[in-house]
Amino acid sequence: MSQTPTRADFDQYMLPNYAPQQTIPVRGEGSRLWDQAGREYIDFAGGIAVNSLGHCHPVLVEALITQANKLWHLSNVYTNEPALKLARALVERTFADKAYLCSSGGEANEAALKLARRWAHDHHGAQKDRIVSFSHSFHGRTFFTVSVGGQPKYSQGFGPVPGGIVHGEFNSLDSVRELIDDRTCAVIVEPMQGEGGIIPATPAFLAGLREMCDSVDALLIFDEVQTGVGRSGAFFAYMEYGVTPDILTSAKSLGGGFPVGAMLTTDRVAPAMAVGSHGSTYGGNALASAVALAAVEFIDTPEVLAGVRARHECFREHLEAINRQHGVFREIRGMGLLIGAEMAPEYAGRAKEILPLAIEEGLMALIAGPNVLRMAPSLVIPEADIDEGMVRLERAVARLVAGR
Ligand SMILES: *Cc1c(COP(=O)(O)O)cnc(C)c1O
């Protein structure tokens, strides 16, 4: 009559919309995790680019506990000190003049898209409602964001899709030229496609989008939910590209594991969201804001950001060494600590098979689509954990190759 939950409980009690691995981790410290049986894992997955400082980082634990003993939640009928500090910290570090706080990436994008529609409506009229997005993009799972996203399988079967959305080809300015006109209110793009396969935008593509948006007075939205808050090696990836959006969304790394999201914009655009136009009960929650502020202040330092870029090189060298041995990858790419290894033609579509093998070897990794092995570890993962994790990954890859 054990009360300890098992993996079978997932199938019995939870909605069948996920297919989690068999192991159930119960404790984490830095870039290591332990499951119910006490087995240890090295974490190259980082909760899908979320655990930016690993598990239970003392700075985040301290911020959470201190705030937990003061005040958790007020609603938006009042404001609170952590939310004000977080908004200020984000504005002071970026192009933005104003921040909207929420609890996830999808919510941040929902706010961004509604803001763009509303701004265009107020400044140009109701006919300016067209949103340009890109194939293979991912912007969240709310019905608006999933419809804007470029993977139709995620929005099919749920009834009529919101209108006014068109999709171009990522990294092709020619494809955008045919879609953008005076009716366009916004272009939304990930500076590096994450779920779509770890595909960085070319600098010319982002610069060209900026120009085209300016020419028709459309707003440029950068979805930095996955690339932001140190993940790319800059505080936000747009800083590396030198192209500034009108609206930027952030989540994932921002909370280091606590649910939080943010939408940033300028004083030109922000007034379109007047009192009562949008909101969220948990947006600006004091606990979430306190943790996110601690994460932002810790990550946005020259040392941590330089550390991310150094670790990128370390990952790349290890993956290239594994590839010299086994020839499983066609290309290793990415920015900072968001790294993809695309499978070689002989292993096309088989990235997913590496994951359970890696688990057996004591390593957690990710995929980005059927063809790309993805890694998004802690931004401060110790070198020893990278080395040991790569030993385990090599064993998993060797088993894939040997078919055992
Ligand atoms: C994960 C992700 C989202 C969705 O974030 P949620 O917190 O799951 O709602 C949106 N955009 C990008 C680029 C993402 O990687």
Descriptive notes:
Its cofactor is pyridoxal 5'-phosphate. Homodimer. It is found in: Cytoplasm. Helix content is 38%, strand content 18%. The chain is an alpha/beta fold and 404 residues long. The strands form 4 sheets. A 7-stranded mixed sheet has the order 4-12-11-10-7-5-6, with helices on both faces. It is globular, with a radius of gyration of 21 Å. The chain folds into 2 domains: 7-57 and 302-402, Aspartate Aminotransferase, domain 1 (Alpha-Beta Complex), CATH 3.90.1150.10; 71-299, 3-Layer(aba) Sandwich (Aspartate Aminotransferase, domain 2), CATH 3.40.640.10. A hairpin with a 2-residue loop joins β1 and β2. The mean pLDDT is 97. α11 (302-326) packs parallel to α13 and α12 (354-361) crosses α13 (383-402). The structure holds pyridoxal-5'-phosphate (PLP).
The whole-number mean of residue pLDDT values reads: 97
Assigned CATH architecture of the largest domain: 3-Layer(aba) Sandwich
Give the total of beta strands: 17
Instruction: Give the CATH class of the largest domain.
Output: Alpha Beta
Low-confidence stretches: none
Which term fits the overall shape? globular
Work out the oligomeric state of the chains in this entry. single chain
Q: Which ligands occur here?
A: pyridoxal-5'-phosphate
First-last Cα distance? 36 Å
CATH H-level superfamily title of the largest domain:
Type I PLP-dependent aspartate aminotransferase-like (Major domain)
SSE order: HEEEHHHEHEHEHEEEHEHEEHHEEHEEEH
**Fraction in beta strands:** 15-25%
Biggest sheet character: 7 strands, mixed
CATH fold node name of the largest domain: Aspartate Aminotransferase, domain 2
Whole-number tally of structural domains: 2
Cofactor: pyridoxal 5'-phosphate
Catalytic activity: N(2)-acetyl-L-ornithine + 2-oxoglutarate = N-acetyl-L-glutamate 5-semialdehyde + L-glutamate
GO molecular function, one term: pyridoxal phosphate binding
Subunit structure: Homodimer.
